[in-house]
């Protein structure tokens, strides 16, 4: 018999290492209630406002990816991701904010909560100091975990048609968004090829920390976290 050795992709290793944390996010009351359509709109509004300021820094993260890209295709894709964050994703947040009576100025001047600061500053530190592989490992949980949520939630037609949360669910469950995520996973695998174990472990650490911060972001929104002093 031919020895069929199936090579494990680095992204499989990343996924395995963070699966538990992602599952805990899916079970978190914020997401469970969002899916059931029972989430208090005030909690969602808080999430949108924090997410808006989060996404400003997140878009910068893609801009750093573009700067660090080794070829024009990669450079173009990271700029496309930056554009889609600023215009598609943040565009939906602006629409939602209007429904909640929140102006664009209010959105942009939202004071980041402790958890938002922790997440965005962690990302930007990786962006400033890390390699392109590190930038990719740090941004990947954000895209990939939202794709999982989108795909999971769009299987529930009531959730997808919900008057308040349906649009949010349809965006993250869309094929376009899924393609972007697949592209990012592919980039991670390509960039990890040939790297020595200590480098791979460093990438895995970024992925794990970003996954934990994703969990913390849901929890922060549910609690409507404030600065203690
Ligand atoms: C805390 C937080 N984490 C992840 C996302 C999702 N997200 C951010 S950028 C991007 C890719 C292209 O826009 C995606 C899917 C979010 N909105 N907020």
From TrEMBL:
Keyword Kinase annotated: no
SUPFAM superfamilies per the UniProt record, alphabetical: Heme oxygenase-like
GO molecular function: thiaminase activity
Catalysed reactions listed for this entry: 4-amino-5-aminomethyl-2-methylpyrimidine + H2O = 4-amino-5-hydroxymethyl-2-methylpyrimidine + NH4(+); thiamine + H2O = 5-(2-hydroxyethyl)-4-methylthiazole + 4-amino-5-hydroxymethyl-2-methylpyrimidine + H(+)
Metabolic or biological pathway, per its Swiss-Prot or TrEMBL entry: Cofactor biosynthesis; thiamine diphosphate biosynthesis
Pfam families: TENA_THI-4
InterPro entries (alphabetical): Haem_Oase-like_multi-hlx, TenA_E, Thiaminase-2/PQQC, Thiaminase_II, Thiamine_Salvage_TenA
BP-aspect Gene Ontology terms: thiamine biosynthetic process
Ranges where the Thiaminase-2/PQQC domain occurs: 19-223
Enzyme Commission number, as recorded: 3.5.99.2
Enzyme class per UniProt: hydrolase
Gene3D superfamilies cross-referenced by the UniProt entry: Heme oxygenase-like
Transmembrane parts of this sequence: none
Active site per database record: 214 (proton donor)
Source organism, top-level taxon: Bacteria
Alphabetical keyword list: Hydrolase, Thiamine biosynthesis
GO cellular component, as recorded: cytosol
Family the UniProt entry places it in: Belongs to the TenA family.
Function text: Catalyzes an amino-pyrimidine hydrolysis reaction at the C5' of the pyrimidine moiety of thiamine compounds, a reaction that is part of a thiamine salvage pathway. Thus, catalyzes the conversion of 4-amino-5-aminomethyl-2-methylpyrimidine to 4-amino-5-hydroxymethyl-2-methylpyrimidine (HMP).
Assembly: Homotetramer.
Name of the protein in question: Aminopyrimidine aminohydrolase
Organism ancestry: Bacteria, Bacillati, Bacillota, Bacilli, Bacillales
